[in-house]
């Protein structure tokens, strides 16, 4: 049988056929006039998607980790203090990257996987810390926890800290209003809610972040990540002029422009709402099937993925059964609880039909491992969400 598995992991995700067609077209020169126009359009569309009209976008070949690396390399100087609001594995990663560039890193850690640090504790740390930069992971993909970016960014601004948001598992899925919320730099990668195959690091730096970069006293020590190399390139593309530093991933940028066009065509508000609805349906199904979730409360659960805990008597072998039923899900990632949960990604072009297929396969998988439940209970709960007036 043709492989028609549905890929429901928290990235890479299912991609729109138009985007995949753009990936498959004949590669143009990186200085071809039609490519220059597409790159320029994509850069401007990024401002719209990040809701950062005055931001400077950067599009560079690499994964989300490169986007984090670029943020740290360009904004931090040796000896700077950095505060990491840590809700999981990707907070740990940001801390390591910042340390690599000589920052003194303090973590505001969630007390346990699935929770968030108390806002009052973060505030107290900001009060005492004299931090140059604060990072927040909007959705930590290892826990399914969503941080309150709006509230944290406001706190950071009050203390004159540069606010950096890791939006790898959120941008174009979760509500993120970079400019209105005072986020100085937001970053993501192509393979998640932006809806393009893996390979692009995407950043939008606001005016304060660019100012901090321009007034550095020490040069950026990372050659490839240095905005001094990339800023003239981004500016040249927007001015519709040929330029070169490192060969851009031409097909990925054609695909990015296509996907950003689809995102803006749907409309950001509608897209945020669709992600909320899909998330409610998956979470209702998981609960109806007797499973709890890693986030300790619904209020801090992400809309881009769901992290159900395995019910008693069920382990990771469930996922092979679900795969046999046609849907690919992801295992746990957080080292402390890795074997206790799994992850369902639901971002990008995901539809209500995809959710029903996923919950159906999950039920078949649960039956396959001998779990006792009422078949159809999850499907009914999900369907109720979609059939709400
Ligand atoms: N941050 C978050 C929140 C992520 O989910 C990921 C990827 N899962 C990354 C950073 C790193 O991105 P990449 O794997 O593309 O390097």
Describe this structure in words.
- The protein is built from 13 helices and 14 strands.
- It is an alpha/beta fold and 389 residues long.
- It has a seven-stranded mixed β-sheet, with helices on both faces.
- It has two domains: 6-11 and 268-386, Alpha-Beta Complex (Aspartate Aminotransferase, domain 1), CATH 3.90.1150.10; 17-266, Type I PLP-dependent aspartate aminotransferase-like (Major domain) (Aspartate Aminotransferase, domain 2, 3-Layer(aba) Sandwich), CATH 3.40.640.
- The two termini are 38 Å apart.
- Bound molecules: 4'-deoxy-4'-aminopyridoxal-5'-phosphate (PMP).
- 4'-deoxy-4'-aminopyridoxal-5'-phosphate (PMP) is lined by residues 11, 63-65, 90, 137, 140-141, 166, 168-169, 189.
Task: Briefly say what this structure is.
The chain has helices spanning 17-24, 33-49, 64-75, 89-100, 119-129, 149-158, 207-214, 227-238, 250-266, 268-288, 318-324, 352-368, 377-387, and strands spanning 6-7, 56-61, 81-86, 104-109, 133-137, 139-140, 145-146, 162-166, 185-189, 200-205, 305-306, 327-328, 330-331, 342-345. The chain is an alpha/beta fold and 389 residues long.
Question: What characteristics describe this protein?
Answer:
389 residues, alpha/beta, Aspartate Aminotransferase, domain 1, Aspartate Aminotransferase, domain 2, seven-stranded mixed beta sheet, three-stranded antiparallel beta sheet, 13 helices, 14 strands, binds 4'-deoxy-4'-aminopyridoxal-5'-phosphate
